[in-house]
């Protein structure tokens, strides 16, 4: 059934949201707000607003995210919008009701671990199909109207935020805010894309049959083969040969082994790699231990 309810997936999403809310709240209450630190995105705007006006941080998060939740309902869907709204309300309640301890006042540790736990929380929320920070929704909404990339939009918005922070609190605070935001975004990438990053490898060789056999039987991987032609060099443009172009997806830990296997068979093989952000299905994992 196309619309059947997946209880296991629903429970997993709820657990992700709960963990994400707790980690993000922990980052703000134990690291950022006691030390008057800022971050990027809507969370950073909320922290900045809280620092300047001393307005309740949880309520500020809800109010400042509402426009982006509405944009999310239009751009992505109502289910996403409801999940995001409930997640942000839950985070506001955590900030208000749970007494998190202040961990440290060392600025470097605050920037590193505050950014890490905040990114961990936001990333877990994203894995559950919700957003604890609405800036990417705004970037997606603006992308269709301005033509800039999402990265350029987010960078521009955060540059404005950090500029305001520099004016009000000094350059040092703005620099630490940049560091916090950088660590948070890198942590989000790891959580959303997975620590086990996949690499796509393309191999062009005259010994493709032997290479296919080694990859499939020894490395236990599925391979995809494209039919192509080799040759077309400047000095012998008319000379060409049919060949199989091999494509395989492996983890980055296996790249060195794959190159060794290919080099043993054909030292002149043309091999190039590219990073894959997300992969599912197929034969991605080995069935036996490394």
Task: Evaluate the radius of gyration.
Answer: 24 Å
Give the termini separation: 38 Å
* Beta strands, count: 4
Order of helices and strands: HHHHHHHHEHEEHE
Show unreliable segments.
286-290
Q: How much of the sequence is in beta strands?
A: 5-15%
How many discrete domains? 2
| CA-based shape | elongated
Outline the fold blueprint.
Layout: H1 7-32, H2 41-53, H3 57-75, H4 78-97, H5 107-127, H6 135-146, H7 150-169, H8 171-193, E1 198-204, H9 208-217, E2 223-231, E3 240-251, H10 255-265, E4 270-276
Antiparallel strand pairs: 1-3, 1-4, 2-3
Q: What is the gist of this entry?
A:
The chain is α+β, with helices and mostly antiparallel strands and about 290 residues long.
Keywords:
disordered C terminus; four-stranded antiparallel sheet; alpha+beta; 10 helices; 2 domains; Alpha-Beta Plaits
Describe it.
This protein has 10 helices and 4 strands. With 290 residues, it is of the alpha+beta class. It folds into 2 domains: 187 residues, no CATH class; 79 residues, Alpha-Beta Plaits. β2 and β3 form a beta hairpin.
């Amino acid at each position: 059934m196309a619309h059947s309810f997946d209880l296991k997936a629903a429970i997993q999403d709820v657990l992700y949201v709960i963990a994400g809310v707790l980690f993000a709240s922990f980052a703000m209450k134990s690291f950022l707000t006691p030390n008057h630190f800022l971050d990027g995105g809507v969370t950073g705007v909320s922290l900045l607003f809280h620092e300047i006006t001393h307005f309740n941080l949880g309520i500020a998060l809800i109010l400042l995210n509402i426009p982006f939740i509405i944009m999310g309902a239009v751009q992505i869907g109502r289910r996403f919008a409801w999940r995001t709204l409930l997640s942000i309300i839950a985070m506001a309640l955590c900030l208000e009701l749970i007494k998190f301890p202040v961990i440290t006042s060392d600025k470097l540790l605050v920037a590193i671990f505050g950014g890490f736990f905040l990114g961990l929380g936001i990333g877990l929320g994203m894995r559950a199909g919700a957003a604890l920070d609405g800036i990417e929704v705004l970037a997606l909404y603006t992308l269709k109207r301005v033509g800039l990339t999402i990265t350029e939009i987010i960078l521009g918005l955060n540059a404005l935020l950090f500029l305001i922070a520099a004016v009000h609190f000094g350059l040092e605070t703005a620099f630490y805010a940049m560091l916090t935001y950088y660590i948070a975004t890198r942590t989000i990438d790891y959580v959303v894309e997975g620590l086990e990053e996949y690499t796509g490898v393309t191999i062009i060789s005259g010994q493709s049959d032997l290479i296919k056999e080694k990859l499939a039987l020894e490395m236990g991987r599925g391979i995809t083969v494209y039919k192509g032609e080799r040759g077309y060099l400047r000095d012998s443009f008319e000379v060409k040969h049919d060949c199989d172009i091999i494509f395989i997806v492996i983890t980055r830990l296996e790249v060195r082994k794959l190159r060794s296997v290919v080099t043993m068979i054909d030292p002149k093989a043309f091999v190039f790699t590219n990073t894959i952000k997300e992969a599912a299905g197929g034969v991605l994992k080995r069935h036996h231990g490394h």
